[in-house]
């Protein structure tokens, strides 16, 4: 944590504003918008549990009111919820339950992903399950690498 920011709320708001500005700039300048969406939950690793929930709600709300309504729902469901499950140390069984709960969202996403074969649908669930198992771990390693880089040069 930055040494001059002892106030947790101020630190959380600084991280929210930073990641929000990165998100908006990536959308308007069209510089890696998908990669930035995937990396948005990285800010939660710099916060404690309570402030990570505040970060999630405020960032998704800011993205939502900026006009990226469908994207904010997708970012929350597919990227933020697995990180929250990892951050709160819930059992691994929750990942399986969460993956199959996404089946309820299938009619909404069938407009974007036309699937006529059930084997493709099952394989998408398996791929997503593997993704949400390793995604928080990889983001945690990225956070550690960023911290090492900042300590070396900062």
Notes on the protein architecture:
The chain is an all-alpha fold. The protein has one domain. The chain contains 7 helices and no strands. α1 runs parallel beside α3. The mean pLDDT is 84. Keywords: Membrane, Transmembrane, Transmembrane helix. The chain crosses the membrane at residues 9-25, 59-81, 93-112, 119-137.
Question: DSSP strand (E) fraction?
Answer: under 5%
Domain count: 1
Tally the helices: what do you get? 7
Share of helical residues: over 70%
Distance between the termini: 13 Å
Nearest-angstrom radius of gyration?
Answer: 17 Å
Shape: globular
Q: What is the oligomeric state here?
A: single chain
Q: Structural class per helix/strand content?
A: mainly alpha
Query: What are the low-pLDDT stretches, counting only 5+ consecutive residues below 50?
Result: none
**Average predicted confidence as pLDDT:** 84
Please outline the major beta sheet: none
Element-by-element helix/strand order: HHHHHHH
> How many extended strands?
0
């Amino acid at each position: 944590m930055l040494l001059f920011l002892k106030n947790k709320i101020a630190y959380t708001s600084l991280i929210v504003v930073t990641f929000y500005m990165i998100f908006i700039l990536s959308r308007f300048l069209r510089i890696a918008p998908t990669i930035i969406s995937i990396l948005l939950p990285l800010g939660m690793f710099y916060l404690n549990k309570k402030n990570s929930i505040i970060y999630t709600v405020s960032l998704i709300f800011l993205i939502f009111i900026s006009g990226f309504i469908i994207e904010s729902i997708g970012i929350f469901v597919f990227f933020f919820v697995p990180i929250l499950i990892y951050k709160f140390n819930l059992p691994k069984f929750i990942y399986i339950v969460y993956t199959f709960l996404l089946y309820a969202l299938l009619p909404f996403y069938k407009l974007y992903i036309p699937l006529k074969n059930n084997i493709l649908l099952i394989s998408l669930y398996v791929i997503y399950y593997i993704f949400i198992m390793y995604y928080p771990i990889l983001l945690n390693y990225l956070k550690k690498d960023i911290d090492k880089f900042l300590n070396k040069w900062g």
